[in-house]
Amino acid sequence: MADFNQVLEPGDYQNGTLNTVVEIPEGSILKVEWDRKRAAFTLDRVEPSKYPKPTNYGFIPQTLDEDGDELDTLIVSPEPIPHGVWLEATIVGVMNFEDDGDADHKIVVVPADNRDNKNAIKTLDDLGEDWKAKVADHFNHYKDEYKPGSTKVLGWGDAEAAKAVIKESIDRYQQKG
Length: 177
Description:
This protein is an alpha+beta fold. It has a single domain (4-176), classed as Inorganic Pyrophosphatase (Alpha-Beta Complex). Helices cover 22% and strands 34% of the residues. It has helices spanning 4-7, 124-127, 129-141, 159-176, and strands spanning 17-24, 30-35, 40-46, 56-60, 71-75, 86-99, 102-103, 106-111, 151-157.
């Protein structure tokens, strides 16, 4: 397997697209993470079955969020995307999130070429309040059984706010380089 941080760039985020790699397909309870040092995926843990991922979960190569990991993505697609797949995605917003006191942003994206819905999703509003509530509920509670109160959704931002987070994460990655 290739090192995604070596073979992929973050993408053309200034113009609304980025590259993202799927770590966890929608519906999975396996917490798979990219291990930057080994350039491989690792199974971190198995989550309780009542907390399956509400959407595909991935990361943007060549980025570092404030928590020290690659910047996360929530990839909204009509069905689960297999683990290890990379795709070009359109930025629709950001979920501002805190995990154990650290900022842990989630960039919300959709596949850049979705012919099934004619690329209809362009903003968080297009996903609807029910979608945001479902995702927020998951992230507010998925650690309740072993670390209650350690996670908190702080709100949502539009694509421009997401681009600012991406830029900061790229800068942080380059400074560490």
